[in-house]
Prior knowledge:
Layout: E1 9-14, H1 23-41, E2 52-55, H2 58-61, H3 102-120, H4 125-134, H5 136-142, E3 147-149, E4 155-157, H6 158-172, E5 177-183, H7 185-198, H8 201-206, E6 209-215, H9 222-225, E7 241-242, E8 247-255, E9 271-272, E10 280-284, H10 301-305, H11 308-319
Parallel strand pairs: 1-2, 1-5, 5-6, 6-8, 7-9, 8-10
Antiparallel strand pairs: 3-4
Helix pairs in contact: 1-11, 4-5, 6-7
Amino acid sequence: MQKPSTKAAILIGIHGLAPKPLQSVLTRYWKNAIREGFQANCDWTEPQKIPFEMVYWASLLHKTHLHRSKSKKKAVSYNKEPYIPSRPGTILPYSPRRNIPLTEDIHTQTKLTLGRLFDQIPLGKVVDFIFDRTARDLSIYQDPDEVKINEKGETHPIHDLLKNELKRILWKHRHKRICLIAHSMGSIIAYDVLHEISQNPFWHSNLRIETLMTMGSPLAFQKVRSHFYPTAPRGLASLPISTPEIISQEWLNYRDPLDHAALDTPLNEIFRSNAYGVHVQDKLVSNNYFNEAGDSNFHKSYGYLRSPEMSHALCKFLTSAEP
């Protein structure tokens, strides 16, 4: 296989909700998962530097970070799901037939069913209440009244702070070929930002996102989509939502069918093509993440990043010439 080229190419990651490890640790975890996927799926063993930068926004919402201190294993901030290399023979292409213990399958199917039922509840106070309890970070992000006061006493909307962090990193790498990798709530922030800057002639003339990769994305949920059209919450399914114009080549959406945070409605049924003809390509994967206790998490970013489907797309991006 051709060696991945780091010239004029960058992978930019943006994480999902909840407290995270330190930025340096989370960056290392993501790069380890990507590298593991390359070695398992792309015959790539060169210890070459992966061009990667993390958009880290957890510190804007959470005062503490996750840690791995053995003396504090019972603490709420103990990281029970760090990056862990895959079990031998478990990095496999997607297959609808998977060997999952019965009790775990029942638990997973229950969460999936609850997610589908939640999406059928008409938008209103009930949905807002459930949303606030189960996805607090996202609830804060979508609330225009949530603000943060900095050291100078200046007040800034949380929504803008999170978006500006992604904008800052995108602008930093504007002269490179960009592949934006967005996990979970990160995909909502990414869509928000890309849609916004697509409407700005200055941004549009200075930046292109060659590839957007979303994984474990909740963008299909009506509550999430209502944020894009706050004045028209009803009849949402008929509202046209487009792929941001700033994406020039591909939008690849990766979903494990057992991932409760990603509704099973394909995104290509919701988001129409942009002027470049770019439309969402939905890809099913098998997320193989297990923590040290042997518990699975089909939503975990590390399992997505090393899946064969994502590895091949990332290798292709890094080894291809500028289109």
